[in-house]
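Sequence, please.
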């Protein structure tokens, strides 16, 4: 009986010990599963910062932007935005920032001359460029927008809105300017600088506008500062304009012109987009008289033109007679 009892206790002890062993083994296995490597530390604070950042990068990656200054338009970060505007217009470049805290917002322009050709435009609410067309125009609550007035073709560049973090956070905007072409042209389509008319004739000027939608716009004609489109006092003035999707063709006609019709004529679609030529009205004067005695050919009248033609015909006739005249033999006389 004692033998059987001891045997039973041994079996129980063995079973208990085995179970405990298995439990300890299991506990060891579970504990080892959650053991993490100790973060690496060095004597260099910046490296410690990098290691700490790296060790938590995967764990908190989707929360990083919530705890510091960041752009609201996340899709614009790292991907330049293209923006096309019309020359002469006023525009805003938006830059919405959340949780700016103690950081500063700056706008810079990266010129086409090279990557390092940067122009500082604004810092905070202050404008640092000498060009008065540029201005920081903050829009509550968080839009640090850059305003550009009367945009020109030269304003084409890459613009960057920067937050003064380390390294700086940046969004980029590629600005493209669609500059219309406005020209007063001759019958061949070449631009004119000045034009001459005789008194009592009809003045006719042609203006072409390109690279701008003109479906709802107007082409203005001016003599000096006077708008001719709606002139009802002078009489004999006609303005005909063909508007197109990409421009316009406009013609100004003035009947029975006189000396008072000379001067500057301007074709315009805005205060900043125009083209001006000088019109001279002649009453038999010569170019030399017109230019204060400068040597220049006279303006041929109808009589002068006929006289030139008759002289040319007579010269041609004489040349033909000489060519067809009989040749006389020459005789040498010895004395």
């Amino acid at each position: 009986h004692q033998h059987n009892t001891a045997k039973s206790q041994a079996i129980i002890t063995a079973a208990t010990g085995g179970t405990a062993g298995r439990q300890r083994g299991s506990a060891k296995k579970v504990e080892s599963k959650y053991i993490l490597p100790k973060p690496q530390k060095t004597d260099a604070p910046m490296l410690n910062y990098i290691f700490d950042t790296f060790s938590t990068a995967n764990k908190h990656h989707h929360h990083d932007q919530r705890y510091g200054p960041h752009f609201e338009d996340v899709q614009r970060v790292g991907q330049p935005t293209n923006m096309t505007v019309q020359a002469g217009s006023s525009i805003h470049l938006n830059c919405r920032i959340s949780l700016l805290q103690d950081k500063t917002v700056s706008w810079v322009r990266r010129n086409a001359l090279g990557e390092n050709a940067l122009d500082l435009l604004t810092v905070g609410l202050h404008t640092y460029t000498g060009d008065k067309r540029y201005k920081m125009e903050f829009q509550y609550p968080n839009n640090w927008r850059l305003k550009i007035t009367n945009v020109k073709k030269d304003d084409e560049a890459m613009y960057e809105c920067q937050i003064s973090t380390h390294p700086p956070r940046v969004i980029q905007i590629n600005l493209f300017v669609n500059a219309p072409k406005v020209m007063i042209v001759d019958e061949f389509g070449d631009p004119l600088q000045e034009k001459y008319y005789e008194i009592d004739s009809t003045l006719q000027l042609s203006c072409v506008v390109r690279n701008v939608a003109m479906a709802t716009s107007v082409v203005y004609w001016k003599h000096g500062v006077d708008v001719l489109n709606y002139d009802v006092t002078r009489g004999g003035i006609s303005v005909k304009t063909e508007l197109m999707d990409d421009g316009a063709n406009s013609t100004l006609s003035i009947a029975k012109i006189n000396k008072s019709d000379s001067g500057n004529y301007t074709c315009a679609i805005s205060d900043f987009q125009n083209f001006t030529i000088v019109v001279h009205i002649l009453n038999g004067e010569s170019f030399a008289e017109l230019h204060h005695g400068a040597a220049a050919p006279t303006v041929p009248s109808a009589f002068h033109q006929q006289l030139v033609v008759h002289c040319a015909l007579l010269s041609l006739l004489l040349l033909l007679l000489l060519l067809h005249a009989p040749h006389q033999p020459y005789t040498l006389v010895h004395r």
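The first helix runs from residue 2 to 33.
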